[in-house]
Amino acid sequence: MIKVGDKLPAGTLNEFIEVEGNGCSIGPNTFDVQKESAGKTIAIFGLPGAFTPTCSAKHVPGYVARFDELKAAGVDEIWCVSVNDAFVMGAWGRDQHSGGKVRMMADGSADFAKATGLTLDLTAKGMGLRSARYSMLVKDGVVKALNLEGPGKFEVSDAETMLRQAKEISA
């Protein structure tokens, strides 16, 4: 499993882009994780699935609400990563009003989750292999803080914890 001090693994994530710009076409676009994280401080949070109860009611809304504070604490970007396709993540982003605040990054085949070791097997519940619930603060591609939730918990991967850690690391 990835840990503090490790570099993010090589790989890609997909994002549904609503408007053309910055070399991105409308629709799903593929982004290289290492290139996208180079030279930036990124708050990444992973969760089991789009439109699921805790994820929709607490996890994403917390990061959307704390966007300005996280930016002020030195966070350049916020990524929500889930094992869903880019179309679902795009629809969820519209539902959550995350545009311009949280990048809704699709890990459709769970490749990023597997590469980081942050997987959650929900096969018995009909959901297959998913991302565990976590958050991490990444600076120039290196993990500076990692908060992994216990099964069924939402206690340490929230935006408030990430904000505190971002302030500590930028100090």
Automatic annotation (TrEMBL):
UniProt xrefs under InterPro entries: PRX5-like, Redoxin, Thioredoxin-like_sf, Thioredoxin_domain
Membrane-spanning residues: none
EC number(s) recorded for this UniProt protein: 1.11.1.27
Keyword Oxidoreductase carried by entry: yes
Catalytic activity reported: a hydroperoxide + 2 glutathione = an alcohol + glutathione disulfide + H2O
SUPFAM superfamilies: Thioredoxin-like (SSF52833)
PROSITE patterns the record matches: THIOREDOXIN_2
Swiss-Prot/TrEMBL keywords: Antioxidant, Oxidoreductase, Peroxidase, Redox-active center
Ranges where the Thioredoxin domain occurs: 2-171
Pfam families (UniProt xref): Redoxin
Purpose: Thiol-specific peroxidase that catalyzes the reduction of hydrogen peroxide and organic hydroperoxides to water and alcohols, respectively. Plays a role in cell protection against oxidative stress by detoxifying peroxides.
Similarity comment: family membership: Belongs to the peroxiredoxin family. Prx5 subfamily.
Cross-referenced PANTHER family: PEROXIREDOXIN, PEROXIREDOXIN-5, MITOCHONDRIAL
Protein name, entry field: Glutathione-dependent peroxiredoxin
